[in-house]
Amino acid sequence: MRRIVVAALAIVLVGAALIGGSIGLAVAQGEDGPVRTFLGRVAEKLGIGEDDLRSAMTEAQQDITDEQVAEGRLTAEQGERLKERIEDKGFLGPRDRFAIGAHVRHHNGRLVLEATATVLAMEPEDLVGELKDGKTLAEVAKEQGMPLDQFTTELLAQVEQELAALVAEGKITDEQAKAALERIKENIDRIVNAQPGALAHRCRDGR
Q1: Is the CB of residue 152 less than 8 Å from the CB of residue 203?
Q2: What is the pLDDT of residue 173?
Q3: Is 180 helix (H, G, I), strand (E, B) or coil?
Q4: How many folded domains does the chain comprise?
């Protein structure tokens, strides 16, 4: 049965890519159309019912999530959130898992802004106001009398400290913290010089 599940997952994921990656939503909502037809055909070829196939796929994703928690790739809280979403939707497509598994990146922009406010001894609201005026983080630091090199060094140190705190609180894993810090370090020059409209995007994606 386990070999059947693995084969089914591989076939389903390829099929999802071919029809637009919408498999998770279509299965969960019970829509008629190419996805439901595709799942039915996969189940038929495997010699099992479509409900059995969907149940096996859901259980497999639950098992994978548990393994990721055990390996430290997800926190217990993240694992539970993911499993709840799997239970709710029945099966998650690649886009769904990417959105959850990469959720730490979506907080990197806010993390950098909060760290900047701490380093520059500013209220976060005041920093946001400066950014709304079109200034970059580097320009704000300069106005606060801090040389760019010093600002960059202290900013990275503060980001590392705040990531460590998130790990200690169980909100992210050590692996996620290291990956986030590495992305920010690699792109720190572009981050501090990014226009406000592009700042969140670059912090999030590490570009």
Answers
A1: no
A2: 85
A3: helix
A4: 2
Given 71, 101, 131, the domain boundary residue is 101
The two three-digit tokens of residue 110, written as one number: 């806010």
What is the Cα–Cα distance from 12 to 5, expressed in whole angstroms? Answer: 10
Helix, coil or strand: residue 72:
coil
* Residue 177 shares a structural domain with residue 199: yes
Global confidence as pTM: 0.56
Residue 34: give the domain boundaries.
Answer: 2-101
156 and 111 within one domain:
yes
Q: Which of 17, 39, 199, 21 is nearest to 113 (CA)?
A: 199
Scored b (16 or more CB within 10 A) or e, 174-190 reads eebbebbbebbeebbee
pLDDT digit string (tens) for 42-61? 888 888 888 888 888 888 88
Whole-number pLDDT of residue 92: 67
Burial class (CB in 10 A: 0-12, 13-18, 19+), 114: middle
Q: Tokens 């609180």: give the residue.
A: 169
Radius of gyration of the chain (CA): 22
| Separation in Å, CA 108 to CA 62, 111, 178 | 27, 5, 12
In this structure, are 54 and 83 located in the same domain?
yes
Alpha carbon distance 171, 167 (integer Å): 6
